[in-house]
Amino acid sequence: MSNTVKSMGLVGLGMVAGVALTVQVSAWAQKGEASPLPLDELRQLADVFGLIKSDYVVPVEDKKLLSDAIGGMVAALDPHSVYLDQKSYREMRESVQGKFVGVGIEVAAEDGYVKIVSPIEDSPAYRAGIKAGDLITRIDNVPVKGLSIDEAIKKMRGKPGSKVTLTIARRGEDRPWVVPVTREEIRVLSVKAKMVEPGYAWVRISQFQEATLDELATKTAALYAENPNIKGLVLDLRNDPGGLLPGAIGVSSAFLPKEELIVSTKGQLPSSNQLFYGRREFYAPRGADPLATLPAALKTVPMVVLVNGGSASASEIVAGALQDYKRAIVMGSQTFGKGSVQTLRPLSADTAIKLTTARYYTPKGRPIQATGIVPDVKVEETAEGDGLNALRVREVDLQRHLAGENEKPATPAKEARDSAEQKQRALALLKNRKPLELGGKDDFQLAQALNHFKGLPVKAASAEAADATPPAPKELPGSEIKPPELKGSKK
Description:
Elements: E1 8-10, E2 20-23, H1 39-55, H2 62-75, E3 82-84, H3 86-96, E4 99-102, E5 105-110, E6 113-119, H4 124-127, E7 135-139, E8 142-143, H5 149-156, E9 163-169, E10 177-182, E11 184-187, E12 191-197, E13 200-205, H6 212-226, E14 232-236, E15 243-244, H7 245-255, E16 261-267, E17 274-277, H8 280-283, E18 303-307, H9 314-324, E19 329-332, E20 340-346, E21 352-361, E22 377-378, H10 412-430, H11 444-454, H12 463-466
Helix pairs in contact: 7-9
């Protein structure tokens, strides 16, 4: 699948998909005695800097050389560590607030082009008629082929009111069409909620933002005000790339008994070894408690959590916690496997590095990194197969990814063969299929969740697909959830 979906994000989002951020105010962490600097290598770096300044074909600014050197050093560590220059830092801060300037599309890279995963409702792209499945072949007449997904996204960003021209190729049409789109500030609500059938509620979290807990409280309270006898609730985390860690802790706490362990982290620094409980200090240390007004029934209502290969980081924390406590049945397909902590270390007032500092573990101590969360009941995306989910790249497919504790080395020949076969099957199924509307009447996985509530047969994945992932964890009778052993950690 190396040429299919390489990464996903919202145009203008400015945040790597599947990142759960822990914001730090210090420039860097001090670790007892500092390691001695490698003077020979630093001299070599200075020599290279001097050679470029004196011999390169055109003059290069000092600031650019140093910024690029920092960026390359950090990016070589793993796919989620990154240097944030002034623009990237500003965009990241905007993204966690649920707003950005762009055209309003969720995109993925496929075979060198930018594929529309979904237009955001009422966004400029949505109003321009751009649809899921369309391919962007040119941006302002510049070919997309050969650009990274991040480079393509940057070209679609800009100031509010400015225009960008997209060349769109659509399956079934002979010629591409050119559409000018005016950029706007896009505000994304992270929580949707509705009754999908009498007695059954659907709550969707698209990303964990600063306002997610407030939105969850408001919308679930409204559901219960109109439907006080809800018999089952589906928490939909499909295609949720993650977001802020406090949001994941708070959402888990909304459905679990008070003060349960939600997630733990382990890293090199003592400060990276932490236990996070369902207490206000971990999900809302300032202001009013957003969970104080939640309906009490949320603690006991029967639940199904829907996940897929696009569920990452913060959404995996929530799914793993609810699964460990047997609070919900996790249904769908194996999640992305982004179980590493990115800590923001400011370098100046407007630059920073986002550095991987620890791994996440579920309450039972199961590692999330590279493995992800395996559903209790594997259900494919459609009745015919796993659709777009079969084309997704997971954490283990990313170059330089942080190895998982339970990760098994892949056999290159078999991996390539399986990827090619999966891609061909998925493309054949998708050829004439309408884009999936999550929470809609044709949502196959949601229908299976409702069948589970009603005691009806659930159409699980085929035996071949089910064998592709390890079985969901089983809890032995009488076993208890115990916090993992962490040095210096206190409840």
